[in-house]
Design goal:
The complex is a heterodimer of chains A (about 475) and B (about 210). By secondary structure, chain A is mainly β. Chain A contains four helices and 30 strands. Chain A folds into three domains: about 15-175, Immunoglobulin-like; about 185-335, Immunoglobulin-like (Sandwich); about 360-475, Cupredoxins -  blue copper proteins (Immunoglobulin-like, Sandwich). In chain A, a hairpin with a 2-residue loop joins strand 10 (about 225) and strand 11 (about 230). In chain B, strand 1 (about 75-80) and strand 2 form a beta hairpin. The longest helix of chain B is centred in the first third of the chain and has 47 residues, at about 1-50. Chain B has one domain (about 40-195). The chains are: A mainly beta (about 475), B mainly alpha (about 210). At the A-B interface, helix 3 of A face loops of B.
Chain lengths: ~475, ~210
């Protein structure tokens, strides 16, 4: 059947918004507890494709107003009108097509943080999408890449401002067969913002003292949001085990997470699950890192407990904030009044991760983090800082010679940490971001097995990245 | 004729090579002498300018802790409440000393007072923030470090100090805790009113005599 173009256009106008509607994250109804249970979890990007193994979504970055604090509207930049942006859900092996539109008044890109995809799809500063322009990001998710990733802008010099105004979302890549039993999942995106009393996001003059401190420390907010809400409540039933995927989308804050009276079962990191679960009392999550935790509901029915951010000193003494040692509540875990349920069995073994062999490394490099620069240099897009051969295995020593923590992020390739200050990493895992504490050294091993091109490596404190603490790796 | 060609060429080649080698060896030797003279000059300046009084070892390069930074609380300098200065390890250890700083960064520290680990490794041609590679937000060394006097040394003298620290000292691992300071990293202390102009006023000033006025 041939339809006249005008009818097609009309159909398109009618149908596209229907298909493009993002779905609220499915939540089981909370049973029993008194008090308001906030539905937690960003919306999921609607898949418009009817093809098998294909996820086709529409993503638009635009200025808008959302309510972040009760009764007040905040001018933000948002993906599809939401902060955080809707979650991209897909499976290993899926072909993903993102129809992206930049409705911002400035250039942007979308960087698929942690995914091993071609450089041309990486959304690096080399490929800006100008205001009003559209771009299709197309890539295929690698087998074995199941895990939690995120997407955010990465334009030259203005990334911090765009993420800080609300442009960030999560990517959940699901495996063919999940080694963990089915359980309730919570996606928690932690991001702080500096809010004024009238609900605006505050941006100080870069030349002011506060501007200088922000450049030094990275911008910190006075309000810490979880999924765009202040201390939301999550429901749990006594005996239940939940799977939490946590993303630190903050510009600079590092969170030391703890849940009083509970331990976490740490099952995964940036690049997916570990080989074995690890029981921990607390967990450190630097900006841009992700963790996967199992939270076992060992509390009594009807009780409640706060997920807290304990003090963590990432600062140089001169600019360390006065309230740096304050413990903050991030969310409330509210037990229902239901009788305890039988705990689910957590497998001892999750998957096999082949260790990259240091004996096969053909290059050893030292990446020195100064304050706001790498190897004594500020970022220059016209300069290649590191040239690596396609297929090569390399060992990178990330040395931090200054008084402040700097989280290192490498685009496009997952790596394995070998040791920290000479202490061997206790177990193997896939990482794309690793915190390098003040005056410490982290050695990592990486294989440039695929995808030639230019890749960024940088400090993920957004103000540092924007001020040039970034380098260019060319794989060829 | 033909059978002479090859040996002749070889002979010429060898003598040419030998000549080049001699010249190169001489150049290398001269360079090494210049380098060691530079290090020796740096050593002499470091001793005579009392670097070791704060950074360790006093005026004696053979002393324990020579330029290795704070090794005991007695070496800390208290400038006021919450303003404790801890002189750094100046030996070329990579992570606890100055091993990863270039001689140019050390030069910029002594000439402009810029904290080397906070300042890119570039030639700086002015002192106006944001111009001539001078940082937009300069971070200065603590005021107890007398760079504001030592900046008047000649380029060669400052380069000699950097050469001595980087190439004339053995690296020693000594992690010194970071100094406290104001959030502006002493920028409020580094103004022409407080530290005077650079370069110094032309000789002779009203206080001076002599020369060829």
């Amino acid at each position: 059947m041939r339809l006249p173009p005008a009818i097609l256009i009309v159909l398109g106008v009618v149908l596209v918004p229907v298909f493009a509607q993002d779905h609220q994250h499915p939540m089981e109804p909370a049973s029993g507890p008194a008090g308001k249970i906030t539905p937690v979890g960003p919306a999921v990007l609607a898949n418009a494709s009817s093809q098998p193994r294909t996820v086709e979504v529409t993503l638009t970055a635009a200025p808008t107003q959302v309510s972040l604090l009760p009764g007040r509207m905040t001018a933000v930049y948002a993906y599809n009108g939401r902060v955080p942006g809707p979650t991209l859900e897909a499976r290993e092996g899926d072909r993903v097509v993102i129809h992206f539109k930049n409705d911002l008044p400035e250039p942007t890109t979308v960087h698929w943080h942690g995914l091993h995809i071609p450089a041309s799809s990486d959304g690096s500063p080399y490929d800006p999408i100008l205001p009003g322009r559209q771009h299709d990001y197309v890539f295929t998710l690698q087998r074995g890449s199941a895990g939690t990733y995120w997407y955010h802008p990465h334009p030259d010099h203005i990334t911090g401002g765009q993420i800080g105004r609300g442009l960030f979302g999560t990517i959940v890549v699901r495996p063919e067969q999940d080694p963990l039993p089915a359980m309730r999942e919570q996606l928690l995106v932690i991001a702080d913002k500096r809010m004024t009393a009238d609900g605006a996001i505050e941006w100080p003059d870069p030349k002011s003292l506060q501007g200088g401190i922000d450049e030094e420390n990275g911008r910190e907010g006075n309000v810490i949001f979880v999924n765009g809400e202040v201390t939301p409540t999550i429901a749990i039933r006594s005996g239940e085990t939940q799977r939490w995927r946590i993303l630190n989308a903050s510009a600079s804050r590092v969170y030391r997470l703890a849940l009083a009276g509970h331990t976490f079962v740490h099952v995964g990191s940036d690049g997916g699950l570990f080989e074995k679960p690890v029981e921990v009392k607390e967990i450190l999550i630097a900006n841009s890192e992700r963790v996967e935790l199992l939270v076992r509901g060992t509390g009594a029915p009807g009780s409640r407990v706060a997920l807290q951010a304990l003090p963590y000193d990432r600062y140089a003494p001169p600019t360390r904030p006065k309230d740096w040692d304050t413990t903050r509540d991030l969310l409330t875990l509210q037990y229902s009044n239901d009788a305890p349920t039988a705990p689910v069995a957590i497998p001892d073994r999750l998957r096999a991760i082949p260790s990259l062999d240091p004996a096969k490394a053909t290059a050893h490099r030292v990446i020195t983090f100064g304050q706001g620069m790498i190897n004594g240099r500020k970022m220059d897009m016209a300069r290649i800082d590191v040239r690596a051969r396609l297929g090569a295995t390399e060992i990178w020593t990330i040395e931090n010679v200054v008084a402040m923590d700097h989280p290192f992020h490498l685009h496009g390739f997952q790596f394995q940490v070998l040791d920290r200050n000479g202490v061997p990493e206790p177990f193997v895992s896939w990482k794309d971001s690793v915190n390098v504490p003040k005056h410490e050294t982290v050695r990592l091993i990486v294989k440039f097995d695929d995808y030639p091109g230019k890749w960024m490596f940088h400090c993920h404190i957004l103000d540092h990245e924007d001020h040039g603490m970034m380098g260019v790796l060319e794989v060829r | 004729m033909r059978r002479w060609t090859l040996p002749l060429c070889a002979l010429l080649g060898v003598s040419f090579w030998a000549g080049t080698a001699t010249t190169r060896a001489a150049a290398d030797r001269a360079q090494a002498q210049a380098a060691s003279a530079q290090v020796a000059l740096g050593r002499q300046i470091v001793i005579s300018h009392a670097c070791g009084e704060c950074h360790g070892g006093g005026d004696n390069p053979a002393a324990d802790g020579w330029l290795q930074g704070v090794k005991s609380p007695a070496m800390e300098i208290k400038m006021g409440p919450n303003l404790v200065m801890r002189p750094k390890n100046l030996t070329p250890d990579n992570t606890t000393g100055i091993g990863r700083l270039t001689e140019r960064q050390i030069f910029n520290a002594l000439r402009y007072g810029l904290r080397p680990e906070d300042t890119p490794d570039v030639d700086i041609t002015g002192t106006t923030p944001g111009k001539g590679n001078f940082p937009e937000h300069p971070h200065y060394l603590s005021p107890v470090m007398p760079w504001s006097a030592w900046r008047f040394m000649t380029d060669a003298e400052i380069k000699a100090i950097a050469a001595y620290l980087k190439r004339g000292l053995k690296p020693v691992v000594n992690k010194v805790a970071d100094s406290d300071g104001p959030p502006d990293f002493w920028a409020s202390e580094v103004t022409p009113e407080k530290i005077g102009p650079y370069p110094a006023a032309k000789f002779p000033t009203v206080n001076e005599q002599g020369g060829s006025r």
